Recover the amino acids of this structure.
């Protein structure tokens, strides 16, 4: 049984589980914890590779990092395994109502997801349009198709609506992307 902190507040508005002031990252952390505790999947947020170059040591217990830099560009936000398949995805939010700026995702992240796909893994984006409270899963294949066939600097909301999959707001798991993966890759089974 999962113990949820702040779960009581969620029942104040039982008809909608929309964001409740949570960020997509916090919602995904709660979702991935739910998957792990319930032995559904093992998905983790990847740490950002940082090299520490200067530390102040007033005492061993009070060490303070004063300077550091990104060692290499990070790949994507999350990875893990589900039903024997490697999962890798990037999560992004936008306040725009009608499009997702491509500047929000880096070229090296797209190339990384493309390699995951080419090697048989499952790669995708999760994009939340915060202003209109819609969250989508967009497979890397669809993202690549859009990039190869458009010169736009953003992906229109309509593209997500016609080529992506809406992730319905839930109480637990909050952002149930596994439900969509089941229908796409695992014959709809759990």
């Amino acid at each position: 049984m999962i113990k949820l902190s702040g779960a009581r507040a969620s029942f104040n508005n039982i008809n909608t589980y929309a964001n409740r002031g949570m960020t997509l990252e916090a919602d995904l952390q709660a979702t991935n914890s739910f998957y792990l505790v319930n032995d559904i999947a093992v998905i983790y947020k990847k740490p950002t590779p940082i090299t520490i170059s200067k530390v102040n040591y007033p005492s061993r217990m009070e060490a303070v990092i004063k300077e550091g830099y990104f060692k290499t560009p990070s790949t994507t936000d999350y990875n893990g395994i589900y039903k024997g398949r490697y999962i890798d995805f990037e999560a992004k939010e936008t306040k725009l109502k009608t499009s997702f700026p491509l500047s929000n995702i880096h070229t090296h992240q797209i190339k990384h997801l493309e390699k995951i796909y080419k090697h048989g893994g499952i790669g995708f984006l999760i994009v939340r349009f915060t202003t209109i409270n819609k969250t989508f899963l967009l497979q890397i294949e669809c993202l690549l198709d859009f990039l190869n066939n458009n010169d736009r600097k953003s992906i229109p909301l309509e593209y997500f609506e016609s080529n992506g999959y809406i992730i319905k707001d839930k109480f637990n798991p909050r952002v149930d992307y596994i439900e969509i993966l089941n229908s796409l890759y695992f014959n709809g089974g759990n």
Observations:
- The domain at 17-47+73-185 is CATH 3.40.1350.10 (Trna Endonuclease; Chain: A, domain 1).
- Residues 24-37 form the longest helix (14 residues).
- Confidence is low (pLDDT under 50) at residues 1-21.
- The helical segments are 7-10, 24-37, 107-118, 140-149, 157-163, 177-185.
